């Protein structure tokens, strides 16, 4: 999932450089959402992994 966030970030950067501001803004929003979902899943996985070890 983090891979998809990075891909959308790169798409946003390229689109922004080429002047496609609407596409760039959409790709940035998708990258942000995917990044935060990845962070939440990662933290949840760490917590459940620590609880399960005990």
Key phrases:
mainly alpha, 93% helix, 54 residues
Write the H/E string, N to C: HH
Strand content: under 5%
Mean pLDDT: 85
Which class of secondary structure composition applies to the elements? mainly alpha
Give the tally of β-strands.
Answer: 0
N-C termini distance: 29 Å
Gyration radius (Cα, Å) is: 15 Å
Unreliable segments of 5+ consecutive residues: none
Summed up, the domain count is 1
In short:
The chain is mainly alpha-helical. It has helices at residues 2-18, 21-53.
Topology:
Elements (H helix, E strand, L loop, with lengths): L1 H17 L2 H33 L1
Describe the structure.
By secondary structure, the chain is mainly α. It has one domain (2-53). Helix content is 93%, strand content 0%. Helix 1 (2-18) packs antiparallel against helix 2. The mean pLDDT is 85.
């Amino acid at each position: 999932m983090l891979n998809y966030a990075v891909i959308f970030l790169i798409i946003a950067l390229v689109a922004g450089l080429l002047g496609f501001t609407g596409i760039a803004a959409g790709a940035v929003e998708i990258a942000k959402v995917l990044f935060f979902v990845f962070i939440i899943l990662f933290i949840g996985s760490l917590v459940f992994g620590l609880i399960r070890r005990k």
